[in-house]
Every structure is written in C-alpha cells, then in structure tokens.
C-alpha cells in the first residue's frame, strides 16, 4: 500500500444546513456553533473519478453532542464535491436512550443534508445499540442483525453483529463469503480484530474465529469501531484493517503507540473515512472534525492464486 500526499489539501468549509421544522433549541444552537467552527479552504483529495464507487465509514457517533454535528458537517461538505453513495456504520449508532426524538437528535438531524441528497446508510450494531435498530428504516438492515449487500458490481459488503457472534452467524458468513464472486469483499462489524486502543484493543477470541474465513475467502478490507480513535492497522496477513470509532465519542490519547501494529493513528479529534474503489484499487482519506486529511493512501485488493 502506498501513501498519497495532497499538497493543496486544506480544511473543508463547514456548511451544515438544517430544516428548521425539525430542530429543537439545542440542535439549533449546535448548528450555529458548527458554523463558527468552519474553516477556509475546500479540498478534493481522492481521484473522484466518474463512475467509481465512493463510500463513507462512520463509527461510534450517536451522541447528539456538538462535536458529532461538527463532524457531520464535514461529511456533508465533502459530499458536495465527492458524491459518495453510501455510508457504512461500524456500530454504536446511538448512545443512551433510543426514543424517536433520540433518533432525530442523534442521527436524522446531523446527517439530514446527506439523507436529503440520497445517501443511504447501512448499519452494523455495536454493544451500545438496541437490537431493535435492525428495524430502523434509515439503517437499511431490513430486520436483520447480519446481512450482505452489493452496492456496486464487484463490491460486496458483509455486515456482522459482533456483540453476539453466534455459531449460526459464523456459518452464515462462511456460506456467503464462499458463494460470493465479487472481487471486493469488505467486512464490517463493531469489535476490531486488530486495534491499538488502550480501552479495548484487539478482540483475540473473535480473531480466532473470523480471520481464517477472511483469509480463505479473499476478504480485502475489514472496517471496525469500538475503540474511539481512528487507526489504520498495518496489513495483517494481506488484509487491511481500519478502526473508525471516532465519529462522535473520542478517547484522546488512547492509541498505544507501542503496539507495533499501527500504520497511522489519530486520537486527538473526531474523524470519519471516505473511500473510492477504482478497479483493483481502493483510495481512502480519514478526515477530521476541522476538515484536515489525517490519513490517506491507496491499497490493492487481495487476489488468491490457486
């Protein structure tokens, strides 16, 4: 994998627009404050090629706090220039209560510009999420705790419910991976197999079960959350792992720099990830709450030789 450098990259202009009809007093204040948090220079950093598959990654975000709104504003601003089609969430979609007004405050209002633009969110559940979220229409889970979808030819996502990795789910995953002929197999779930987060770190028991399947069936990329940081892990046995648990809750200084597995870590502010697949390559950026690109690069999908 090689890193990319964008000499003209600068902060994105924050431009969150909310429908006044669905704002409460607190979120109105957040929007105003978010505007004050704006920065000056727009940036288009990825290839941004017509016809490519573009998507976002977000995790551990649903706090309803100002910082979440500010990062959501950066996501909306990026979408004005980089038309990603979907956002995949890697769990902990809502913290605390999950009343209808909570879904508004912690999801529908901050991401309203994206939802209005037709961006579809695909949810994975974290340990803080009620299982009933599988029925929430805007998470597109269609009543399933684990599922698969292919938003683009040759790209297939496999979504797991890693809080309760039942034998039935693991068998389902193997069957789906085996049946898929997609060039790009991307697996997303909450608990990371590899993480330098001091709070949680790598889930070794889950790794023991899942990693052999990822290797056998040609998974190229794994997306996780749980640790409230951004981390690109050094490729493990040819697979690229990302921890993107930095969408709303931050554990500042929580990356263990001595773990030896960190390719790039960011734990001083919130961040989301934007990605673009062109042929056998996937470009990616991690973008902070103030619009800085804190990590970028391009990786090549795995190809099993028989």
What does this structure look like?
With 306 residues, the chain is an alpha/beta fold. 22% of the residues lie in helices and 23% in strands. It has six helices and 13 strands. It has helices at residues 25-36, 66-81, 100-108, 112-116, 167-179, 204-216; strands at 53-58, 86-89, 120-122, 147-152, 155-159, 184-188, 221-224, 230-233, 240-244, 262-266, 271-278, 281-288, 293-300. A hairpin with a 2-residue loop joins strand 11 (271-278) and strand 12 (281-288). Helix 1 (25-36) crosses helix 2. It starts with 24 loop residues before the first helix and ends in a 6-residue tail after the last strand.
Summarize the structure.
This protein is 22% helix and 23% strand. It has helices at 25-36, 66-81, 100-108, 112-116, 167-179, 204-216; strands at residues 53-58, 86-89, 120-122, 147-152, 155-159, 184-188, 221-224, 230-233, 240-244, 262-266, 271-278, 281-288, 293-300. The strands form two sheets. The chain has a seven-stranded mixed β-sheet with strand order 4-5-6-7-9-8-10, with helices on one face. Strands 3-2-1-11-12-13 form a six-stranded mixed β-sheet, covered by helices on one side.
The percent range for helix content is 10-25%
Structural class: alpha/beta
Number of contiguous helices: 6
Oligomeric state of this protein: single chain
Please give the radius of gyration in angstroms.
18 Å
Q: In one word, what is the shape?
A: globular
Terminal CA distance reads: 23 Å
The residue ranges in which pLDDT falls below 50 over 5 or more consecutive positions are 3-26, 35-44
Largest sheet: 7 strands, mixed
Proportion of beta-strand residues? 15-25%
N-to-C series of helices and strands: HEHEHHEEEHEHEEEEEEE
Mean pLDDT reading: 88
Number of strands: 13
Strand order of the largest sheet: 4-5-6-7-9-8-10
